[in-house]
């Protein structure tokens, strides 16, 4: 049985009864069907380490959950979600577990009035063209030191992955036409994974396998919008999404992402845009996140004004400073807005870029039209790859890899911060949060961001200027910025490469 990922298990660790809070958090997951029946929980030692709490507390909670019928204990094997929940699980006392934390009580928030800037299609189109042209010199080697968006390719268990591929390579049943929605075992495995790790609430029939996140974004936009409809998007933001918006001849409205404080939710609420595209877990490239209160505001906005949200849960697996917030998709169901949110996931950063496999979780009523759109588009991940990935997830290797990489990337991030502080001597500020596979730098005066990128390229270092992610409507910044990826650089090279970059910055 696929192991349970406790990635977004959240509770009030400052409560006078930590044991009660943990019991409520786990039982809520089980009652809400977010943890698959029969799913294996982490060992008491592992969960205690992940949550930074006493192992005795975890043992007591597990034993209490077993006693009340939520978990099963198997000697020599561990703890599992009960296949049959106790009969009293739907009593008011148990259902109140869902409501006891009060996270979905509507907030009375003060709206701030701010101006908006709307960009027509032509300006976006030219912006994309200019960005592509102006930065061709920076993308000649997409995988070398500090190239953003590339995971640690050497750390991937390639031998084990090859065995999974070989297991299905000779299956003649996979050689013919396959289900348009994707491999059913893979859809089920992903459904169980996002339910346990991100509190996503969906059925297996809502999941569509895609050839990467970009195809998922295209399907979502094409299924609900028509030309000239307005899309709200983070600025600076994901360049590839801008290209899709331009290709579909949609209008574009920039929503600023401020340094450290993140997306201007107040401007979203004031807009008449039909759809919001957002990366709430780790905004790229600014490295901010949307907190729980803001997430509730957004799903309430979508519900009350009949708008749409595409949640691109980029980098949600790699949070180093705090537990991940629940997904917008999961929150939307709890406030009756589940038909307004698409959820996009990609395995490129978790596994490797060349996999080219993503998934789209679609509101139930839109599954037929999204499948029709996918049918009209080209591109599908090979069937044997999908089957191999299903095994990789179900047999636990996927989650083991994520946990290993979370530890590795946390260490790399710490070394990046230490090296930047040492070699730049306080002249450059890291403005991104402790998450994901990149850091974003900010500085005033001195070398420009494009000049620094050019100098770095000559030394075999790839970094991205912040302007690469901005739209034409952006007001002129008074500071410079750059994005450095640390996923695919060896730990032992971080200090020397940052030292080289600092010398280039000072020249």
From TrEMBL:
PROSITE patterns: HTH_GNTR. The keyword Transcription applies. It holds the Pfam family GntR. One of its GO terms (molecular function) is DNA-binding transcription factor activity. InterPro entries: Aminotransferase_I/II_large, HTH_trans_reg/aminotransferase, PyrdxlP-dep_Trfase, PyrdxlP-dep_Trfase_major, Tscrpt_reg_HTH_GntR, WH-like_DNA-bd_sf, WH_DNA-bd_sf. Residues 16-84 form the HTH gntR-type domain. Keywords: Aminotransferase, DNA-binding, Pyridoxal phosphate, Transcription, Transcription regulation, Transferase. CDD domains: AAT_like, WHTH_GntR. PANTHER family: HTH-TYPE TRANSCRIPTIONAL REGULATORY PROTEIN GABR. In the C-terminal section; belongs to the class-I pyridoxal-phosphate-dependent aminotransferase family. This is PLP-dependent aminotransferase family protein.
């Amino acid at each position: 049985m696929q192991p349970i990922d406790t990635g977004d298990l959240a509770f009030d660790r400052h409560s006078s009864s930590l044991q009660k809070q943990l019991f409520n958090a786990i039982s809520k997951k089980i009652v809400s069907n977010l943890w698959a029946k029969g799913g294996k929980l982490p060992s008491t030692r592992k969960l205690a380490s992940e949550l930074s709490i006493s192992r005795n507390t975890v043992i007591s909670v597990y034993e209490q959950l077993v006693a009340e019928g939520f978990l099963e204990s198997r000697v020599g094997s561990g703890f599992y979600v009960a296949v049959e929940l106790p009969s009293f699980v739907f009593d008011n006392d148990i259902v109140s577990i869902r409501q006891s934390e009060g996270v979905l009580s509507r907030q009375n928030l003060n709206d701030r009035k701010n101006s908006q800037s709307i960009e027509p299609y032509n300006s976006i189109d030219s912006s994309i063209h200019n960005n592509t042209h102006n930065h061709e010199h920076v993308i000649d080697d997409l995988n070398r030191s500090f190239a953003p968006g590339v995971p640690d390719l050497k750390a991937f268990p390639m031998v084990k992955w090859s065995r999974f591929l070989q297991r299905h390579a000779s299956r003649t049943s996979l050689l013919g036409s396959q289900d348009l929605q994707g491999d059913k075992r893979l859809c089920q495995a992903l459904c169980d994974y996002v339910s346990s790790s991100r509190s996503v609430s969906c059925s297996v029939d809502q999941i569509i396998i895609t050839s990467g996140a970009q195809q998922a974004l295209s399907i979502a936009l094409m299924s609900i919008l028509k030309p000239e409809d307005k899309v709200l998007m983070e600025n600076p933001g994901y360049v590839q999404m801008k290209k899709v918006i331009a290709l579909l001849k949609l209008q574009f409205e920039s929503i600023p992402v401020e340094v450290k404080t993140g997306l201007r939710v107040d401007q979203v609420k004031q807009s008449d845009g039909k759809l919001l595209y957002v990366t709430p877990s780790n905004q790229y490239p600014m490295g901010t996140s949307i907190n729980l209160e803001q997430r509730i505001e957004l799903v309430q906005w979508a519900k009350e004004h009949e708008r749409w949200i595409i949640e691109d849960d980029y980098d949600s697996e790699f949070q180093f400073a705090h537990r991940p917030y629940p997904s917008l998709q999961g929150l939307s169901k709890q406030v009756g807005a589940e038909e307004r949110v698409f959820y996009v996931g990609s395995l490129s950063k978790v596994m490797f870029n060349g996999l080219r496999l993503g998934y789209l979780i679609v509101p139930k009523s839109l599954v037929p039209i999204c499948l029709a759109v996918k049918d009209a588009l080209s591109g599908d991940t090979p069937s044997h790859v999908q089957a191999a990935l299903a095994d990789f997830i179900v047999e636990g290797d996927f989650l083991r890899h994520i946990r290993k990489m979370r530890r590795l990337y946390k260490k790399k991030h710490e070394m990046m911060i230490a090296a930047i502080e040492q070699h730049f001597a306080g002249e450059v500020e890291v403005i991104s949060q402790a998450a994901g596979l990149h850091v974003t730098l900010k500085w005033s005066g001195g070398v420009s961001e494009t000049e620094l990128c050019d100098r770095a390229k000559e030394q075999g270092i790839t970094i991205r200027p912040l302007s690469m992610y901005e739209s034409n409507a952006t007001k002129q910044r008074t500071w410079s910025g750059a994005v450095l990826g640390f996923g695919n650089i060896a730990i032992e090279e971080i200090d020397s490469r940052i030292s080289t970059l600092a010398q280039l910055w000072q020249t």
